[in-house]
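quick one before i forget lol
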Amino acid sequence: MEQDLRRTWDEELRSHGYRVTPQRQLVLEAVARLDHATPEEIAASVQETARGVNISTIYRTLELLDNLGLVRHTHLNHGAPIYHLASDADHVHLVCQDCGRVLQVSPEAIRPLITALDEGHGFETDVAHLTVFGRCRECRGKNA
């Protein structure tokens, strides 16, 4: 599976005229491993293997990979964007405002809302950027 994913990344980069560099591979691997991560978290992961890769390289690489559709970013709060693989982008983020935990649910979980927005307002929902803020089960249980 991991080998197939790496081959797909390599083919996508080459099909757009980009070389498959070690830095690009390390960033993609870090995004896949970390799931929802900031550029700083991705940099820390990459730097465990390749100390010489600086944060500006990470930002440029993430921007390129986002433009090519290999990774996607979303803003879960007012801080840095969070990155994940584009192949895993079809989900809604649930962010606990108490502990900061990020959960993800299928768009089917909010299908009635998506349908109501479309039918009632002609509004097409971009689920890949949809974030719902609230309190997770554990935090709700602590205050009960």
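fyi The chain has two domains: 2-87, 90-142.
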